[in-house]
Amino acid sequence: MELDSLTPDMPVLLQELGVSYDPDRLASALAPRSGELNARAVKVATTLGLFLSRVGQDFATGRLEKNMERRACELRKALGDLGPSFVKIGQGLSSRPDLLPKIYLEKLSELQDRLPSFPSDIAMRLIEEELGMPVESLFAEITEEPVAAASLGQVYKGKLHSGESVAIKVQRPGIADSIAVDMLLLRRLMKIVDRNTSEVTQDLVPLVDEFAQRLFGELDYLQEGKNCERFTSLYSNVPRIRTPKIYWDFSSRRVLTMEWIDGVKLTDRAGMAGAGLEVVDFVDVGIECTLRQLLEHGYFHADPHPGNLLATKSGDLVYLDFGMMSEAPANARYAIIAHVVHLVNRDYYAMCQDYYDLDFMDRSVDTRPIAPALAAFFDDVLESSVSKLNFRAIVDGLGDVLFKYPFRVPPYYALILRSLTVLEGLAISADPEYKLLAKAYPYMAKRLLTDPSPELRKSLEGLILSDGSFRWNRFENLLREGSQSSDFDPEQLWVLAKWLVSPSAGEIRRPMAEEFVRLIDGFAAGSVREQIHNRIGEEMADRLVPVGPREMDHLARGRMLLSRLRGSAGLSDVSMPLMGSGPFGIMTPREIQSVARFIREDLAQRVPQLQALIQEPGAMEVMNQVTRGLVSRAAARTVKLVAGISSPQQSSPSGGGADR
């Protein structure tokens, strides 16, 4: 069927079927059009059959790897020649590392919609047919030619009689019939493949059905308008995110009228530079918005290609085209974050378990043999810090693993990968050193710290506990990174504190209290040593208070933590009694207990949240454990200090500290 010959007078199949995809009803509706189906089937079978025969020949002659790039280019051309349905299929396959090798993914990602615009007189007739009024009665102005065109439709700029500038999106005539025919033929072809090819590890017919459902959804402009409004209701509070208003009185299934927003495409370097806008700045906004879409509500824009993103002079990032949306189920959102935690911990067997929750594997499949392959790839990747990791390189490397094992990547996950790689690609075009994961980490850290859900609390526990020990450096890094998230509020940390003293955090409290004892003791020891050093000199300081790198590190950490807590809790004017009356300011056990009372009584009066917090049994448990630990260490240090003063000639080791 030649697309260029289609006109609005052709039967519109979706009017018979409705807008939802139903393969059985589709087959029944197309049954009277067997001649058209057969002609199209010959073209599709000839084009794809030629490609498959070449791949088969490569396999038979042992040249599969050698000719793979060439065949990938041939597949890209074949799909492009077959028209918009197959272009969309190729674009969808470009984010499926479980189905195709990496070189195929790269080549198919280059597929573009290249159909010419259709005549404007046909577009005007379609507008009148859909909206039931002459164009001049609907719009005060409308451009003679489209301002943008793609495979499914084209856009005109207009003005309502009430004065608002609008974008008028008009569906390409006959495109629904064309897609319906192609989806039916593709489904029949994949059914044959499923029955006769054992090498394919998952059924292909369900993949065709899922893709066809999404593609049919793009043909319903009323649904697209509803998608836009739902997206707006969920994410309009995200800083610098904007979406167009929908004008429902001027919209129908094949015509969508929305607010016209002046902006610059992120790929328009000259336009961005002329407006004084930075591509990377807008990609940063897009990445945080994408993460919030994926991990908060799960409803996300699944097609954020450069043409669907605009930068405004006021600094807003505008999302357009809401035809392709997707949803990540709640269990998958938590599983994604848990997967990141397991990756950071290099817990590859736990990562294998994650694949059940992510719906990558049926639970009847043993995933443990995959762990060595994950280790072989990620051990090298993780030698770099998070800030140096390239998301695309990770996706490509992981894709090799996915392709070798019987993974079944869910549609939502494939779209997530596509969304994030598109955004990183935009940024890299402006800054080759840009790293998406470094920009995403602050949001992930904030979620781990502030989200009260049991699933994320479990992930947080897994990140900051190791063999029963509290990893202070991990916790500190989360605080530092999380505070850089655009919507971070220090008050949210009280939610974390409340959880830490709750019954559900019992496993983490003892190691946390032990780490507090080490931190405070090291901080105090370093402070006392500084007093001695300033009054007597370095040699005597080394002898009387032998501290090693750990104590000096605790001193620096303690000062930073104290400064951060004072600032975030509004305690900048509070003086903490951290120096005692003993020699060189060392605190006595009685003074340590006085500090505990100071926190429970005086400080709690200043901070209502703290007052409520310390009433919890878990808080008293931590304070008692910390007090006992500090009293014990202070007594030991006092004995050592007195012994050092009374035996000044006795040599003392230069390192070590409180943990000896």
Characterization of the model:
Residues 141-470 form the Protein kinase domain. Belongs to the protein kinase superfamily. ADCK protein kinase family. This protein is α+β, with helices and mostly antiparallel strands and 660 residues long. The chain folds into four domains: 8-112 and 176-216, no CATH class; 116-171 and 220-260, Phosphorylase Kinase, domain 1 (2-Layer Sandwich), CATH 3.30.200; 271-488, no CATH class; 508-643, no CATH class. 59% of the residues lie in helices and 7% in strands. It has 28 helices and 13 strands. Strands 1, 2, 3, 4 and 6 form a five-stranded antiparallel sheet that branches. A four-stranded mixed sheet has the order 5-10-9-7. Strand 12 (465-466) and strand 13 form a beta hairpin. The protein starts with 12 loop residues before the first helix and ends in a 14-residue tail after the last helix. Residues 1-12, 568-574 and 648-660 have low confidence and may be disordered.
Task: Report how far apart the termini are.
Answer: 83 Å
Based on CA atoms alone, the radius of gyration comes out at 32 Å
Q: What kind of sheet is the major sheet?
A: 5 strands, antiparallel
As a percent range, the share of strand residues is 5-15%
Helix content: 55-70%
Overall body shape: globular
Q: What's the domain count? A: 4
